[in-house]
Structures are given as C-alpha cells and as structure tokens.
Design goal:
single chain, mainly alpha, Arc Repressor Mutant, subunit A, three-stranded antiparallel sheet, 3 strands, flat, WH_Rok, coiled coil, Competence protein ComK, Rok_N_oligomerisation
C-alpha cells in the first residue's frame, strides 16, 4: 500500500522508544545507587570527602572575576546607563564566554563593586561621584 504510517506502526515505534528509555533509566539509577552506596560505606568507615576537608571557598573563580572586571570596565567607559543585554554581548564578544543569567551575574557583581548601581529593569550605571 506504500509509505502510509498507520496507527499500529506508530504504537510499535512508541513501545520500542519506551523500552529504550526504560533501559537507559534503569542503568542511570543503578549507577546512582552504586555511587550512593560507595559514599555511604566511606562515611561509615570514617573516610571524609576532600570537599569537607578543604572547606568551601566562597571566593569567585578567576574566570568569573575576569568577567566582572570586563563588565565594570565597560560601564566605566560608557558613562551612561547601559542595558544588561548590552553588557552581556560586550563580555561575550570580549571574552568568548557565555553568561546564562545576566541578572544573577550583575547581582553578584554589585557588592564587590559598590559604584555599579542598578537603575531599574536591566539598566546599570557606574557612579563616579557621591559614594
């Protein structure tokens, strides 16, 4: 009859897809179970993870610090309110790294650079006087 894709074929295809997904999920769950069991065994034997021993550092990574410096330099250079999207594009062109959440990036930047102020709804400026 040709290349007619009937309901029976569609159901068979979907059942095969479900089988593949089910196998993949079972493998993922088994792997997670093994990881958790190993970690539990380590904890019961008194072995601590390297993260616990070191303690977590709250300082930003060097790459983030560089991105922040680029953003502040751009704001200083512009001397007028700048949209966050423009800052994001500039940083991505200058450094090649993507910023997925610009609001969070700028919120984290502000305590470190007090002269960077948010004017509202995605507008930022570097204040020279006053503070």
């Amino acid at each position: 009859m040709g290349v007619v894709f009937d309901e029976q074929q569609a159901i068979k295809l979907r059942l095969r897809q479900i089988d593949e997904i089910e196998l993949r999920m079972v493998k993922e769950l088994e792997l997670e179970r093994e990881i958790l069991s190993n970690r539990l065994r380590d904890l019961e034997n008194g072995v601590s993870s390297s993260n616990e021993e070191k303690g977590k550092s709250r300082r930003p990574q060097e790459s983030v610090r560089t991105l922040r410096e680029i953003a502040v330099a751009y704001l200083r250079e512009r001397k007028v309110p700048v949209r966050a999207v423009e800052i994001q594009r500039f940083i991505e062109r200058a450094n090649g790294k993507k910023i997925t959440n610009m609001s969070a990036f700028m919120r984290a930047l502000q305590p470190e650079y007090e002269r960077v102020q948010k004017l509202g709804r995605g507008l930022y400026i570097y204040e020279y006087g006053g503070k």
